[in-house]
Amino acid sequence: MGESAIRARRWSRVEYERLIEQGVFRPGERLELLAGQLVVREPQGTPHATAIRLVTRALLAVFRQGWSVDMQLPVALDEESEPEPDVVVTAGEPREFLASHPHHPVLVVEVAETSLALDRVEKGSLYARAQVPEYWIVNLNGRVLEVYREPQPNASTPSGWAYRSCQNLTAVEHVTPSAAPGARIAVADLLP
Q1: Where are the domains of the chain?
Q2: pLDDT at 184 (0 to 100)
Q3: Which ranges of the chain does DSSP label H, i.e. alpha helix?
Q4: Separation of CA 161 from chain center
Q5: Rounded to whole angstroms, what are the CA distances from 145 to 14, 27, 112, 122, 165?
C-alpha cells in the first residue's frame, strides 16, 4: 500500500466570512484565515494582553483623526487571508469600514511569545505580499521590537514575499512609524 498525500481544502476570504455569518464557529473560537487556511490563534497570557494595550495606547497617541487603530479585528489582506492582527493602523474613520473590513493597513503589529516563528515567517510573508509597508513584532521573549519594512518578492518564503529591512530595537531605543514620520515612540513604552 503506497503513501498518499494529504490534501487540504483552502478557503477564500468570502467563504470564511460566510462561515462566520452562518454561525459555523463556536462563540469565542479564536480563528483567523491565513493563506487559505484556518489557523487557531495563540492564547493570550497577561504579558501578551498587556503588550497589546501598551502598543494600542502608544499608537493612538500618534494616529488620531483620519486613522483607525484597532485591536484584534479582521483585516482584508487579499482573497485568501483575513488575519486579526494584535494591533493594526489603517487610514480612515471607523464608519468607513461598514461595507468591508479595513484593507491596505499602513502598520500591522503582532505580539509574539509562543507564536514568534509563525509571526516572523508565515504572517510576515503574508503582510509583505499584501504590500503592508511596515510590520512590527513585539517579541516578548527577547524583549525587543522587530521592525520590518520594504516588502519585496522572495521566492523562498511561504507566500513569495518578505521584508527587505529588519531592525531589532531594544527598550532604550525609539521607533518612528513610517506613516507618522514626526512621531517618536519609546520601545520601552511598548514592552510589558
Answers
A1: 43-190
A2: 97
A3: 13-21, 46-62, 116-117, 124-129
A4: 15
A5: 33, 32, 10, 18, 13
Instruction: State residue 1's pLDDT score.
Output: 47
Global pTM value: 0.82
* Vertex 162 angle, CA 51 and 123, to 5°: 40
C-alpha cell recorded at residue 69: 487603530
How is residue 170 annotated by DSSP? -
Fold of 43-190: tt1808, chain A (3.90.1570)
pLDDT digits (tens, 9 = 90+) for 51-90: 999 999 999 999 999 999 999 998 998 888 888 899 999 9
| H helix runs in 65-154, sequence order | 116-117, 124-129
| 3-state SS, residue 48 | helix
Q: What is the rounded CA–CA span in Å between residue 170 and residue 180? A: 20
Answer for the pair 111, 190: CB distance below 8 angstroms, yes or no: no
Virtual torsion, Cα 155, 160, 163, 166, nearest 10 deg: -60
Instruction: Give the residue ranges of the chain where pLDDT is below 50.
Output: 1
Q: Which residues contact 14 (CB under 8 A, 6 or more apart)?
A: 79
Question: Which residues, at least 6 apart from 178, have a Cβ–Cβ distance to it below 8 Å?
Answer: 106, 107, 133, 134, 149
